[in-house]
Fold this sequence. Notes:
- The structure holds two protein chains of two kinds.
- Chain A has nine helices and twelve strands.
- Chain A is α/β, with parallel strands linked by helices.
- The longest helix of chain B is centred in the middle third of the chain and has 39 residues.
- Helices cover 86% and strands 0% of the residues of chain B.
- By secondary structure, chain B is an all-alpha fold.
- Chain B has one domain.
Amino acid sequence: xxxxxxxxxxxxxxxxxxxxxxxxxxxxxxxxxxxxxxxxxxxxxxxxxxxxxxxxxxxxxxxxxxxxxxxxxxxxxxxxxxxxxxxxxxxxxxxxxxxxxxxxxxxxxxxxxxxxxxxxxxxxxxxxxxxxxxxxxxxxxxxxxxxxxxxxxxxxxxxxxxxxxxxxxxxxxxxxxxxxxxxxxxxxxxxxxxxxxxxxxxxxxxxxxxxxxxxxxxxxxxxxxxxxxxxxxxxxxxxxxxxxxxxxxxxxxxxx
Amino acid sequence: xxxxxxxxxxxxxxxxxxxxxxxxxxxxxxxxxxxxxxxxxxxxxxxxxxxxxxxxxxxxxxxxxxxxxxxxxxxxxxxxxxxxxxxxxxxxxxxxxxxxxxxxxxxxxxxxxxxxxxxxxxxxxxxxxxxxxxxxxxxxxxxxxxxxxxxxxxxxxxxxxxxxxxxxxxxxxxxxxxxxxxxxxxxxxxxxxxxxxxxxxxxxxxxxxxxxxxxxxxxxxxxxxxxxxxxxxxxxxxxxxxxxxxxxxxxxxx
Lengths: 256, 254
């Protein structure tokens, strides 16, 4: 499919679910993203690797419309995100899941209410029985059906992450954006979360962008890795290709 | 010094923008009525106990303190009338608003602040919810409606405290006490005092929400927001009270 973009005609394959071109974002003098380009194809898992503060979280927040970029093109599920109306933005957001670094579970709500929240907002026509069935299914998927009436404060770090993942998946999104999904977890729990991401991705045929520093997680989930250095797509390739790279900046990540 | 002035001016501008956004969102379609009722329950009903205790103590203490002065002038019989005017006009609305600024203001500041730093507000936005409408509009509306109700409740309790206060050293019947109270109060006392509490409630709500919603710098910022919510909204209660008294005076309702 050929699409006319602000920077001329670009060839975009029909399998592309996220397309970024020349994305720029600055905070004051700090230029976080400088002409960043990325293409996520259907069913693909891309890991964005970069140092803390390099703009990885800013990048995925730009994709979902939480942060407005200074310039550039963002196309999500064939919808241009610049100048998008609130209704269209909500429709896109119902098809894109976002797993927050801090889990972002609502402290004042039970696990059930946390999971019901996106359903009640995006699927207002859904019956009570259907909502209850989906909540149960989402909790079973992450292996925590017994936590349904618990408060987030009663859960361990790993359990909170699983519940957050269940909430992200409850709308059956086509794309999932993971913001450091294993940060703050012990290696065993982090491994379990990585396995769960792969398992659920296969089950629901999702495409994903994963931000992570955890090289074990990166190795497991990444089909392609994009190095975000100096606000640009510095280098990209598979885990093995980048591990074999002679570039000093890239090597540092794989040595640690 | 110059930096402080500059920051204060910027903050006033930000509050003004927040204030305008509140009214824009308030009149926009799709009201979160259920959440507003839930907030009325949490912010209003859950404050009843605290407001009742303070109202009762204030009524009792003011009566006990006023008695010796009135005895000096041989005007002890005026005690119910005098305390009822003081309590209903000034003391109970201001004290109740300050209690609300402390309890409700810190609660909203800390709750919204922690939601902000733990990305819960962002999560709400990606869940197809306008967080400003869901969190701010509902809370500000709830506080604006609940503070006047709490003040009316505290007025009644404080007058009951006054009745006990009068009877500690003297003797007055229940009927006589209430007759004297009602005779001394006029609509000119009650209407301005209740009207100003809507503004107290709105100020507490909007300032606390602003402080919480704009929290920065992680968990340390949450504490700062909760503290600033209480301090600024308490100060605003006094400023609004001063303005209300001037207006009442101009309208010759005093």
